[in-house]
Amino acid sequence: CKKFLDVNTNPNSPDSAAPNLLLPASQAATGQIMGNFFQINGNIWAQYWTQNPTSSQYRTVDQYNPAATASDRAWNILYRGALVNADLITKSNDAGIAYTRGIAHLMKAYTLQVTTDAFGDVPVKEALQSELFRNPHYDAQSVVYDSVFYNIDRGLALMNASASASPGAQDLVFSGSVANWKAFANTLRLKAGLRLAYIDAVKAKAQVQAAYTAAAVTTGGVTTYSFLTVDASIKYLSTGGNENPLYNEMVGLNRVQNIVASTTAVAQFDANSDPRVAKFYDLLPVDATAKTDRSIAQGTYAAGANNGKTVSPPSPLVGGRASNSASATAPVKFISAAESWFLQAEAVARNWAPAGQVLATLYTNGVRASFTSVGLTAGDADTYLGVAGNVTQFVTPLTIGTEEDKIKSIITQKYFAMCGFQGFEAWTEWRRTGYPTFFVKSAASVIGGVRMPLRMLYPATESTTNTNYPGLKVIYAPVWWDTKHPLL
Amino acid sequence: QNRTVTGTVTAKDDGLPIPGATVKIKGTDIGVATDASGKFSLSAPDNAVLTISFVAYTPQEVSVAGKSVVNVTLTQNYQQLSEVVVTSQGIARERRSLGYSAPTISGDVLVQGGNASALTSLTGRIPGANITSTSNTPGSSTRIVFRGGTSVAGNNQALIVVDGVPVDNSSVTGGADSRSSVDFGNRANDIDPDDIESITPLLGPGAAALYGSRAANGAIQIVTKSGKKGKTTVSFNTSNVFSSILRLPEFQNEYGQGYINEFDANGVPDYGTDTQENWSWGRPFDGKPQAWGQAIDVGSGTPVKRIKNWEAQKNNVRDFFVGGFATDNNVNFSGGNDKSTFFMALNTLNSDGVYPGNQDVYNKYGVRFNGKTDFSDKFTAGISFNYNKISSRQVAGGQNDNSVFDMVLQTPRDIPLPQLKDLTNPYNAFGFTDYKGVVQANKYGYYGSYTLNPYFVLDKFSNDDELNRITGNVNLEYKPTTWLNVTDRLGIDTYSERRRVITPKYSFTPVDAVSNGSTQVSNGGYEIDQYGVTELNNDFMVTAKHSFSSDFKGSLLVGNNIRQRNTYTLIAQTNASAGLVVPNWYNLANSNGPVATGDSWTVRRIVGLYADLNLSYKNFLFLEATGRNDWSSTLPKANNSFFYPSVNTSFAFSELIGTNSILSSGKVRASWAQVGNDTDPYRLLTTFAKGTVTSNFGSTLFPFGNVAALQAGATIGNPNLKPEITTAMEIGTDLSFFDSRFGINFTYYEADSKNQILSVPIPNSTGYGAAIVNAGRVKNHGVELALTGTVVRSSNINVELFATYTQNRNIVMDLPDGVDQITIGGFGGMGIVAAKNRLNGQFYGITNQTDAQGRTIVSATTGIPLKTTVAQYLGSYNPKYQGSFGGSITFKRKLNVNFLFDTKQGGKMYSRTKDILAFVGVSKETGGVRYGQPFPNSVYISGGNTVVNTGANAVNYSKQDYFSALAPGQNIIDASYVKLRSAGISYTFAKSDFKSLPFNSVSVGVFGNNLFMWTPKSNAYIDPEINSGGATNEQGLDFTAQPSVRNYGFNVRVTF
After folding, report:
1. How many CB pairs under 8 A join A and B?
2. Domain ranges within chain B, ordered by starting residue
3. How far apart are alpha carbons A370 and A416 in whole angstroms?
4. For B208-266, what is each residue's pLDDT tens digit?
5. Sign of the dihedral through C-alpha B993, B996, B1001, B1007
6. Shortest Cα distance from A34 to chain B (angstroms)?
7. Which CATH architecture has domain B2-76?
8. For residues B772 and B627, what is the distance between their CA atoms, to the nearest angstrom?
9. Candidate from A76, A240, A465 with C-beta closest to B592
10. CATH architecture for segment(s) B112-246+325-400+459-683+718-841+877-914+974-1055
11. Contacts of A133 in chain B (CB under 8 A)
């Protein structure tokens, strides 16, 4: 009888999983977040994109008025896709997978940072321990950042382990390249450290310096620093279900073009004679004389003048053109090479970098990296930086400006480089630094006054399931490190 | 010394012969049935006593000593105490001995209304049962819940038992969820009502204890027909049913296509005139000619747009539908000899529903064979076999492109829907050839940019279902001595079902680019879903009887049950994101990217040991005690054995005090019982799943290129689960008065279900979405009342009336720590939840703000009602009370008129039909004065003061702005109704009417079901019985569910 009843072993789902199988699931979840929900909200709130007047899907984003349930799916993907699987890898006892565990720590660090940058205080200490804590408490953002740095430490230490098998192709970002992951760890530490520059300069500086220490490579008496020189990204495929997550959503929405060019960004590109505008957007009309018709002002989808108007959509290069299946293969960039250069530039501008680092070189490298990443040449970048107005606006402050002038030039230029690819980071850097200074209030804003979106809403699912849910924070409440955002 | 005895059995009331009465030699199994003239003939010993019995008549005993002709007159007696009732495990017992309520419904009653569903035909017949039919079409779902159901989130339906063997009653709704549901019915509706002899519901767990865990919600015992010893008879029944839509929404007939752009300074509206709109917020009708739809063949010289008058098409929705027709034919053969009996039936049911074309068809074919034979005095064997083949095609409901009804409802009031039928007409078409002969394969000429032509949807989308099912059992009975009986019954229920879902691939742009028309795009798709279920049940029972004295008797049954349930699901669909490669080729080979698959197998076993002790004292005091221990494969080893007892008693006091002219019979009864329950397979361990990142629209799927992935599963298992326990009690009485002409059955019951095994949502920040826990408690209490009366009883006319009343309170007492409610259904805007200290099945959503006086609070600037900031509890789908009233009038035993009304009162439901009608501005509530008036009975807040929104203070609102964005709570409507559930007239010819013809009996009838409905004024939209969740726990949800139909038709019944 005992044997007869012993049939409760699940044939449909395994009860264990090898860490190398969990890794791509975790990375793809972070990719889905950065490439879809954070991509759409980020690019609209960073004012690269706005809602198309002939459709309606993202009106509430432009209205700064997301539904109470808007973040539910994102939170689900972050915690139940990206973080829990990374966490299971880090806790694995499997021998010989130090690199996989190291990558998992770094993915966890990256994902925790974007999670807290989006939502502020989030569960960390009691999160992902379902057997102990069924109602995880929320931790202060400073604590979350401590966890980010801790996971970078652990990740880097494991990447330095000499005896480990490479996860190879199971690593969707770098195919197991240890050098790239070390550079990622250093760059991420730079990025996370600089985020605290205005709230905790001491800790920020210490982390930036720790990043340089870890990154230092001395060969023949010459010290170089290994930060990312390539994009840390997931390259998507044209296969159904493997497409760029933004394009994939457009397909799910019957290929309706919901996002179009915002005048906030496009007018700046045009004013600076920036050829990248034609790469980030599929300009309509192509005729340069009709530049004002290429875009609509942020949030003016309902304006009578825009009724039925055809507005330039984002290009397939950034995954934003619904009708062009080339959008499927657009990458999702976790950290871009250009961003890496601009982060180093900021460290130098703040005098937190080791001696010998040249601001102008790092800055130019950042602009060149951006140009080459969209199919232009380094020469095109140099031409662009040589335009008289751009010299005055961007280059000159790097040498004769104050520290703040330098940072303004760096962050503004980083803003242009991130168009369409890294909207979430651009919006986040605007919250941190107040740059660029040309943001406008969305015409569709319903939150009134000088308020801007400064965080994402906590998900409704937490409010109904977590007894330690701390209560709703309004969208215009700044997160802990956000002390400098401008009032519009 | 045997000799032949003949006689006639007649009814006392009308003096007419009773065909089919049983004449048995007392103390033996030897007997015959009377023929069509009530005559019988059998060979009996000299000293024999004959027992003559017939359903609903008092049996009589007659000695044959010295007689060769025995004429017997039987007296009619409605449900008297000596009636034999089938109880748990198929055990036959006299009604007087039962300690619980168990009304019996005969097969004749089930077919009166001509409904293809035997379950639906039970509506109004069983006090304590809440029966919900969805669209009332052949093959649609019916849900039966007794006494409110015991579970927070689990299955609450009664166990279906056919001839003593539990059968599957799965209901797998088609479509992704209730927002795109396709109703493929529930399996208990597969049985042909014509095959049913009787149905006996066992309402409480006490009655059903011997069936074990699954009978925690009661059981419906179906007994199929068996052959009678004697002459072979052949019966042929044909029912032919016409159907039409019972309830369509009420529409406004004042405004046509378009919308108000804005108001000028004087408050005069500027109307938008987009002829590709689905909104009816446009200009008032003026009857003048008006161009409509898209401009076709511009430059051809012919009119480029069609012209019609600017007026309402009052019947455009009704005229879209056609009359449905179903024909149900059954032929059966029955008969037997001294040793054996058999019953064989063939059945076909062919139906084409109310949608034009053949996209809603249901074809069912069935074969049944029931046979029984006595190998010897001691050894009897029986077999029952039923095969069904069902092939159906159903139309999807919901809000997606494939929802035909959704497209129909969004048609502006001035668009003549039936004119859109001809898809070769360029004005209606998706792809056509223009006047130059150029093929415009990717252009559409259909008027609407936001909807598809419903005729196009019917033509291109389809949902098919093929099912093969075998149910049956083998019975062996051995009686070594007179006091001992050994029985083994092995039952099987196995079916395989295969569904195909076709979604066309297309991309059409509007031919008339002047308008702001949208491109209609679909990647297409093809999906095959296969489901299989096999249930095996074996019961081995030993029964011993003993008479301790002539007054004190007892019996003891000891039994063993082994049950195994295997299921499989195999889902294969073309790439969920990219769909099909080329249009019109529906095959998995045409998948644009990897095929998505789902593959699941389950096995579940239970071993049970049970005992049933019955004691009786004289003819009036009865006691039954049962105990059962189950061992389940689905619970952890430490907790997988659980025992549950029951006890019930009956006191037939009328036997003690003797009957008198007032009280004919009477008993009181009481029952207390527990039932334990296990859980679904594989809920103990936390598992991993294939890597899939599901987003709101579109998902990242693995393999990614050729990289495979696994991820943490969604639910945390529980290795320490314990069984659920339901404890129930009931007390009641069955009384009959005035020569059994009036009867009362009354029951009060309580049930308390604890330790429920629930999958509760936990915060995603734990890394998981749900956990399996033992918690939660649901309490039910209620009353059941049935009244019967033979108002007139004479030789010419017999009038029988009956009424039932049911009231149940189903309250969620407790949920797991920290959880106030559990979602059991609904969608983003409107949840259906089990909430602590509230009635189960609560609607939960945002609604309009109101003040303490019930006035709606509106915005001081727009005049539009403000919405509540948090979701509100908006009432339960469970009715507060139910009732029924029916009657049967018979003239000279030839002409019968019957009717049945039923009602449910006080429940709520969510109607997305109301919502979409409001959004597009076609429902009646959107008509009338549309702007320049304040919202009725409203206030607004100004400077901290509440201002009554009337007169000079009034802030006017625009109906267009309000109704196009209703709060979900405004779509909760009162689900109360009164229905004429069924009615019929039948005429049975006497044998004398057709002497020269080879018929034994002929009857013809006309009938109808779901005929008329009365609802509260607030429900101008739907039949409140429709439901998008089919027979699942997700009730009261009209997510543009299929409209229900009224059926009416005629039947002919002939026996040879």
Report:
1. 244
2. 2-76, 112-246+325-400+459-683+718-841+877-914+974-1055
3. 9
4. 778 888 888 889 999 999 888 777 889 999 999 999 999 999 999 999 999 888 888 88
5. negative
6. 12
7. Sandwich (2.60)
8. 28
9. A240
10. Beta Barrel (2.40)
11. 766
